[in-house]
Amino acid sequence: MNDSYVHGYEARENERLQDQAGALVELLHDDTTYPAGNLVLEVGCGVGAQTLILARRSPDAQFTSIDISAESLGRAEQKTAAAGLTNVKFEQADIFDLPYKSESFDHVFVCFVLEHLSHPREALMILKNVLRPSGTITVIEGDHASTFFYPDNVVAHAAIQSLVKVQAQAGGNALIGRQLYPLMLEAGFDDVKVSPRMVYVDGSRPDLIDAFTKKTFTAMIEGARESAIAADLIDPERFDEGVKALYRAAESDGVFCYTFFKAVARKSEP
Amino acid sequence: MNDSYVHGYEARENERLQDQAGALVELLHDDTTYPAGNLVLEVGCGVGAQTLILARRSPDAQFTSIDISAESLGRAEQKTAAAGLTNVKFEQADIFDLPYKSESFDHVFVCFVLEHLSHPREALMILKNVLRPSGTITVIEGDHASTFFYPDNVVAHAAIQSLVKVQAQAGGNALIGRQLYPLMLEAGFDDVKVSPRMVYVDGSRPDLIDAFTKKTFTAMIEGARESAIAADLIDPERFDEGVKALYRAAESDGVFCYTFFKAVARKSEP
User: Fold this and answer.
1) What are the CA-CA distances from residue B6 to residues A185, B162, B232 (Å)?
2) CB-CB contact of B45 with B1 (8 Å)
3) How far is CA A137 from the centre of its chain?
4) A100 Cβ under 8 Å from any chain B Cβ
5) What is residue A10's DSSP assignment?
6) Sorting pLDDT into bands at 50, 70 and 90, what band is B7?
């Protein structure tokens, strides 16, 4: 959401986010639909990976999708136009300085955003303010230290930890998924329900090995190589050895597990 | 399955296994039922925690439940008798020296057993031998290093790792859950399907906090205290600090995650 956004904005990253969106749609979004005529704020839409899914799944709801990056918004807009979607309005905005009045939206949707913020609870409270009473908020976040795999490998965990630390130094929290339940309560939401969504990948799913283990997760770790090394968080050789062990877990007799968390909650009546 | 069984056979352990069985029945066993008249071998039934569930869920199947411990079998037998179940026969037997002819059973069921064996693949091949062609095998195992929690705590992970090491020194593998898919393939089974079963516990589930986080998982870690310290795998102070951090994750604003794995596979036609 700002200059310190660790995933970068390059072409390869864009591709990664597309792969991720494709492979994970069912797992993450199957239970999210919005009624006709409802106004939904999507926060931190980026290049529109989730926007397309949301807008297609709820064709009669009206989406306002915001991001701080004009370039990302441009790509997101191109994509929704190419897909023939007419129920999304894009606006450049900062989550901490929203140009909306209180109670402007029926629902709020936040996906892969809180992990990058130094003040996620405050962000949630701001979003609660633009939500109407009894409106819902949906938050989806990953948790990089939920990762485990076979064969297990301590150096691969060290490489993952180096990304966790890069993200922490930038003010983020790559372990925020596990924390969603207390965070939502602290922000004052009611009826908080959190469910884990584990991506389990073994040799019976070569499509997921490719789309998730390699092109989503391992590509994300590889994307942090220069930052992690520049910040002296890990040696180049050790980092590369860890990445190699992640590719090993992506072979046909390997297993890979990663858990996303989805929280749905309600704003209380006044 | 032998003298080095790390969980011990004391009363408290017995109680723990009962709590575990109660809280996890749905998550682990909901999709396991056997047809009327089918013969099912339950391997390593212990004190009968799973036996009761199996026999109740498939009242017209015939179970043969084996264990190496006569004492455990006695308790299991008492329990099934007290529950009025008449479709279970208990027999004392060693998985590596089974008193059954080839193809004696329609199905095999194994729960929390492979983690204690130094040769799990060989055990699976022996079980394949007593299974009829196109019969099924169901294997359920935990994975102690799948554990993560909020607040995260490095000392709690060290305490967990000390149990993992105790189990490894006894020839077992506390991380076997993630490995089920390749293991079943290596043992020669067909149609191997593995699904993760995550126990997710937050403040909305005080029953699970009590039954799983405290009385199952943390009690199991505490049960390894003397062995881990005697084997010089961890300092007493560090161990106790780790256990304290696990109880911290069991408070109402804490979160706890643990993943079991369930594999179902088929013996190929000759």
Assistant:
1) 39, 12, 16
2) no
3) 15
4) no
5) S
6) low
Three-class secondary structure of residue B251 per DSSP: coil
Give the model confidence (pLDDT) of B129-182 as tens digits.
Answer: 999 999 999 999 999 999 999 999 999 999 999 999 999 999 999 999 999 999
Residues of A in contact with B147 (CB under 8 A): none
- Listed by number, the residues of chain B in 110-149 with a beta carbon closer than 8 Å to a beta carbon of chain A are 143, 145-146, 148-149
Phi/psi of residue A135, nearest 5 degrees:
-75, 160
Distance in angstroms between the alpha carbons of the first and the last residue of chain A:
31
Which DSSP symbol is given to B145?
G
CB B135 within 8 A of CB B108: yes
How confident is the model over A220-258, as pLDDT tens digits?
999 999 999 999 999 999 999 999 999 999 999 999 999
Q: Any bridge partners for residue B201, and if so which?
A: B256
Residue B215 near residue B19 (C-beta atoms within 8 A): yes
Report pLDDT digits (tens) over B128-140. Answer: 999 999 999 999 9
- Asked if A82 and A55 touch (Cβ cutoff 8 Å), the reply is no
Flag if B152 and A178 touch (Cβ within 8 Å). yes
* CA–CA–CA angle A44, A47, A49 (5° rounding): 90
Q: How many C-beta neighbours within 10 Å does residue A21 have?
A: 21
State ipTM: 0.91
